[in-house]
């Protein structure tokens, strides 16, 4: 791994951290601000209405992710014409799909009594439809941002693209708070937020054209054959949000049907605490993703193998450290977080933390498959594993209780490890014994003896001076 690769990995991890920080800031700030200027019923109905447009996120059918992988691999091989062909083809496809979705959304809202179906009272019928329409258009327009970020990613500037996106998200959120603080209603707030997102999307289009002159908007290089070639991996990406919904909401519903709402609260809060490590593991995955695409695109198998090993190693280290911390502090945090309303269970938390460790290994390893568009079978296995887990969670919860319901979550993680690791090792020309040995090996510069020697060298001049 050369210096430039290491530098991009460090910057990528930092940009992902900024992205998570931006999301955290939005989540922490919006609740007290909205509740200060709006009534509780109005804010509650705002949350209900704004959740609906989020389902339109699947409207690009995974073409943004697939295009990013393909453009990165092509650019790494020096094929910028091919990357431009993928960019323009997916640009027009996503534009056409989103335009059709906007028209369909407008028609559905026109003929559907949305406010009555959602049982809203603080937001009237007309405002409900316009809020959903404004935010729906914003979500659909945002589908192009994934493709625009792919342009930066394919030339090794993923950290910059991710950082700009985080700044724009914070800015749009800040603009949205202006009408809230000035006494504006829900409809005005939605319009301002949607307008801000549209403005920043246009700004990002201009920035990409300025920073990457070879990226051109048009249709001269667009190709239907290119779209057809990318269709299978694009649709496969849609399996992951479905599998995530089964893994999260599906298992919660299974526990609820088997044991009742009280068990759902205990199970759900414990799993929320245990999944803190998954956020950091996902940051590792996002950081290594573009580098794996680049290395594989140039057929640099040695670098691909090294990146795969180091990403899995880092993911495991983070998971184990967070798990150890949660096993120590988790029950105390649960007690104070829930105000003592949810009794902490160390045994339940321990089982759920074991699930996190099992997840971290296959999740990080699967990044290699996803980064090079070899994830079709991975998607099938994921849907299979999560579907079996939902059924098993209900059966075990009903027969043996909450601990066995938590243990059932290990099934999908073990199933995924059985498929993902061999597939990734084959793709990176690695062997399981060598991969396993690499998990305990660290770069020379990070070994304790080297770190101690570095500390001694830095402290020696000061001691001589004194």
List keywords for this structure.
466 residues, disordered C terminus, mainly alpha, 2 domains, globular
Described by the principal axes of the CA atoms, the overall outline is: globular
The major pleated sheet works out as:
none
Structural class computed from helices and strand pairing: mainly alpha
The SSE string, one letter per element, is HHHHHHHHHHHHHHHHHHH
State the end-to-end distance: 40 Å
**Rg on CA atoms, Å:** 24 Å
Task: Write down the domain tally.
Answer: 2
Question: Helical region count?
Answer: 19
- Helix fraction by DSSP (H/I, runs of at least 4): over 70%
- Unreliable segments of 5+ consecutive residues: 461-466
Arithmetic mean pLDDT: 83
Proportion of residues in β-strands: under 5%
Number of strand segments: 0
Describe the model.
- The chain is mainly α and 466 residues long.
- The protein folds into 2 domains: 3-231, no CATH class; 238-450, no CATH class.
- Helices cover 83% and strands 0% of the residues.
- The chain contains 19 helices and no strands.
- It has helices at residues 3-37, 40-51, 63-76, 80-111, 114-117, 125-141, 143-153, 158-181, 186-211, 224-237, 239-259, 261-274, 276-297, 301-337, 346-371, 376-400, 402-427, 432-438, 448-465.
- Helix 3 (63-76) runs antiparallel to helix 4 and helix 11 runs parallel beside helix 16 (376-400).
- The model is unreliable at 461-466 (pLDDT under 50).
Overview in brief:
By secondary structure, the chain is an all-alpha fold. The chain has helices at residues 3-37, 40-51, 63-76, 80-111, 114-117, 125-141, 143-153, 158-181, 186-211, 224-237, 239-259, 261-274, 276-297, 301-337, 346-371, 376-400, 402-427, 432-438, 448-465.
